[in-house]
Design a protein that fits this description.
The chain is globular. α7 crosses α8 and α17 runs antiparallel to α18. The chain contains 18 helices and no strands.
């Protein structure tokens, strides 16, 4: 209470000394005491160009929206331009109409998925190898319902799962291979929680080949996590938080004939015994 006065973050940035001279009473001329006035001046700013908390936060927020809208109105704006805007995640979370209209176009949504499922050459730019895949995953996983609905269309799920088409040695040789498999896992996890029946139906329709692909990439913990969730018993999947509608709430293995279940179990046992990669053998054994 009797220690030195605290300087607000705004005052420290602006270099303006806070008013601390009056500690409980007004100082001449009536009105609010100077110490109390300093609270208001710090919130709203000391003048037309002084800033303050409200100007920094509220004014900044309005500027962010205006900036994104202005960017989208430019002729020839690309998805890369939009992803490089520092407010992209906040704008998607805020459901900006112009931004969502742009992202929901087939060409842009497919490009978002392409940044996740396609492994770039190691000579590609840092943005292509690191930044765009990360931001594409984050945009999808914000949870905006229209984006999730579009991602769950069969052609877009096919794009997402096409990352499993790569041979394991190709993924392991890539500097970002397991990174992108991690983004794949994060998106699938989001869909399992929010669009459970749609993604399970897609996997059921694809059948055993998609499980063979996941077993081939089981050296990656992210793929092991996806496979583990798809093999959960029905009660466990309900506890996992799946969004079940009137359809069958149970996972794939309850609908499989014994021959199919034996195929998956045999593939896991073979990988546990014969895998060259130590991580693959361990992960297959755990499953």
């Amino acid at each position: 209470r009797d220690g030195p006065p605290r300087w607000s973050a705004h005052k420290l940035r602006s270099g303006v000394r806070p008013e601390v001279e009056a500690r409980g009473g007004g100082g001449g001329g009536g009105g609010l005491p100077r110490a109390i006035m300093s609270l208001f001046s710090d919130y709203w700013g000391d003048g037309d160009d002084a800033g303050g908390f409200a100007d920094d936060v509220l004014g900044g927020a309005f500027e962010v929206v205006e900036g994104m809208d202005s960017l989208l109105e430019k002729e020839g704006v690309t998805l890369e331009d939009v992803l490089l805007d520092k407010s992209i995640i906040e704008e998607v979370a805020g459901r900006g109409d112009k931004l969502l209209e742009f992202l929901l176009r087939d060409s842009e949504l497919e490009k978002l998925l392409m940044f996740v499922e396609k492994l770039p050459d190691d000579g590609a730019s840092v943005e292509t190898r690191v930044k765009f895949p990360y931001l594409s995953c984050e945009v999808i996983c914000v949870g905006e319902s229209r984006i999730l609905d579009r991602v769950c269309e069969a052609k877009h799920l096919a794009m997402l799962f096409s990352i499993l088409d790569y041979a394991p040695d190709k993924v392991l040789a890539s500097s970002v291979g397991e990174q992108n498999l991690g983004y794949f896992e994060k998106i699938v996890d989001k869909l399992l929680v929010t669009r459970t029946n749609r993604i399970l139906r897609f996997v059921q329709e694809r059948g055993l080949p998609i499980f063979d692909q996941m077993v081939a990439h089981i050296y990656c913990d992210a793929v092991k996590a996806v496979l583990a969730k798809l093999l959960l018993p029905g009660a466990a999947l309900v506890r996992y938080g799946g969004d079940f509608d009137a359809g069958n709430p149970f996972p794939l293995w309850l609908d499989w004939p014994e021959k199919s279940a034996a195929h998956v179990a045999g593939a896991l046992l073979a990988k546990a015994r014969e895998a060259v990669e130590a991580d693959a053998a361990v992960n297959a054994g755990l499953l």
